[in-house]
Amino acid sequence: MEETQRKERRAADIQRLRQRSKNLRQHILTMASGKGQGYIGQGLGIADILAALYFYEMKYDPLNPRWEKRDRFVLSTGHYSIALWAALVEAGILPASELPQYGADQCRLEMSTIDTTPGVEMTGGSLGHGLGQAVGMALGLRLAGESSRVFVELSDGELQEGSVWEAAMSGSHFQLDNLVAIIDCNGIQADGPMVMNIEPVADKWRAFGWETTEIDGNDMTQIVAVLEAARQPLNRPKAIVARTLPGKGVASIENCEKAHFLNTTHVDWNQARRELELQND
Amino acid sequence: MWIGIKLVANWSCKMTKLGQTVAMGVSEAVQSQPVITAPFGKALVEAGARNPKILGLTADLGKYTDIFPFKEAFPDRFFNIGMAEQNMVGIAAGLARTGFVPFCTTYCVFATRRAYDFIAIGCALSRSNVKIIAGLPGLTTGYGATHQGIEDLALMRSIPNLTVIDPCDATETMQAVHAIAEFDGPVYMRLLRGQVPVVLDLATYRFSLERAQRLREGTDVGIISTGLMTGRALEAVQTLSALGIEATLLHVPVIKPLDVATIAELAATVDLLVTAENHVVTGGLGSAVADLIVACQTKNKLIKIGIPDHFVECGSLPYLHTKYGLTAENIVSTVLSALHQPS
């Protein structure tokens, strides 16, 4: 009986989170259609993970984004800002009215994350910074006796930056149980499909001493399960290698040439919204 | 005319035995000079006792950057990040975001050449409360070009939001540690380590993050110095005085933000300005003063004393200092020849 109830609760959670993902993607389309270009593929690809973090796993106070006891989400790939803005709007930290201003002059929703915008933990843009700062935050929170955790997103291309591995080494050296790295592996980088092989990604993180799991980063059931597993105290940080599909959820963007920076002049945004609504979960 | 500050010692440029290459861990002082051992570490322990948020970090150079006294006093607040300078600065920025005040040590060359993006983006852009303490500034090692931080002030001075300090002795090092521990913002400070000479009197000198320090008043020439060149400039102004030339000596420990008002005031009262720095003449204090006098349109004659625009070889410090003009004698002869040249 208990098991049945647990399964029902889980199914309801997954359904609720899928709706959140859909909302995030709607926000992303609103931003993208306003700007007409941007890192839309990456944003849509990582929407499921952000939905699970912001509406299942992390504790925060939308009315006080600087609440000391909050969990931290560090977006290391600053150009994925479009996904973070969507999450922060959906979480009620930023107003939806700002969505059309994505990338516009004097906006707060910049093309790359900037820490002066509420809810942003770190200024991104230069790759290879997020994990080191996340290690510092996790160390600081532990020193301060806080139970808060730090979630940091990195990308597969970013793993080419040597600083990532310096930080990976220190994360396990300091036994940061309160640190979870999510590596978004979407297979594209600025010059095209992976220009420098970084596989096998999961083996590398394991070799650096991280508790590592590989998942389909667009499968909400797998995302929720891995986040729950990452709560386990193991005296080491956790790495989630998440394979994602750029443009996920919007067929016409999924089918675009897989590009790092998408020029969307040819995209019919009304059609894109319809595709999203029809998305088969 | 000596003003305000009691000076306890002159900095002699007659140092270790000539011809002997000086590598790591060797003091700048001569035997007769009063010194304080590890003034940085000493002051950091005091600051750390007052503020439990102060942390110590190093990139496998703790032994050589005088931070081990802090490690011994507060082992739980000390982290050795290993040979990974950019990671140390990144971790420090993260620690600062959780309310801590990390002091990071390494050498100037590694802090600036290796970790530049992490200082610029992780610390300066976000105004993170990170203190970078960098050893072996300019020619304080004879180890060779890889370890001589000769262009660090130029690199750091060009980053917005960053405070850049080049202390001249043990007194100033200790006072500056306390000042930057209180100051909320990113700082790059050059480190004099080991047996560090005492040039300025600890009881009467008052380091300020805002003000340059007039150490002497005179109307014939304005000498503007920073870092260890201030000790040599003090020696030079006495020699000049004996020759009937009275100099104003302005010590500028804070390269950024520059005390523009005090330098402009000096530029308006003398014709000849001479800058002296333990740094290349491109982009450091001399360049900052040049920018300033152009902006002020004071039409001074300016001579920059410093390391020329090339990498320096390995060698003993007395040899290198003499070769590259980082001596009191060179300041004296530069002033004399400039004053005797028809303008």
Number of strands of chain A: 9
* Arithmetic mean of pLDDT of chain B: 93
Percent of residues in helices of chain B comes to: 25-40%
Instruction: Determine the fraction of residues in helical runs of chain A and give it as a percent range.
Output: 40-55%
Order of helices and strands of chain A: HEHEHHEHEEEHEHEHEH
Q: Which protein chains are joined by the largest interface, and how many residues does each one contribute?
A: A-B, 30 and 28 residues
**Major β-sheet profile of chain B:** 7 strands, mixed
Number of strands of chain B: 14
Q: Given the structure, what is the number of helices of chain B?
A: 12
Query: Judging from the principal axes of the Cα atoms, what is the shape of chain B?
Result: globular
Q: Separation of termini of chain B?
A: 26 Å
Descriptive notes:
The complex is a heterodimer of chains A (281) and B (343). Chain A is α/β, with parallel strands linked by helices. Chain A has one domain: 3-Layer(aba) Sandwich (Rossmann fold), CATH 3.40.50. In chain A, 42% of the residues lie in helices and 13% in strands. Chain A has nine helices and nine strands. In chain A, the strands form three sheets. Chain A has a five-stranded parallel sheet with strand order 2-3-4-8-7, with helices on both faces. The longest helix of chain A is centred in the N-terminal third of the chain and has 34 residues, at 2-35. The radius of gyration of chain A is 18 Å and the shape is globular. Chain A starts with a helix and ends with a helix. The mean pLDDT of chain A is 94. Chain B has 343 residues and is an alpha/beta fold. Chain B has two domains: 35-197, Thiamin diphosphate (ThDP)-binding fold, Pyr/PP domains (Rossmann fold, 3-Layer(aba) Sandwich); 213-340, Rossmann fold. In chain B, 36% of the residues lie in helices and 19% in strands. In chain B, the strands form three sheets. Chain B has a seven-stranded mixed sheet with strand order 3-2-4-5-7-6-12, sandwiched between helices. Chain B starts with 34 loop residues before the first strand and ends with a helix. Mean pLDDT of chain B is 93; it is low at 9-18 and 22-27.
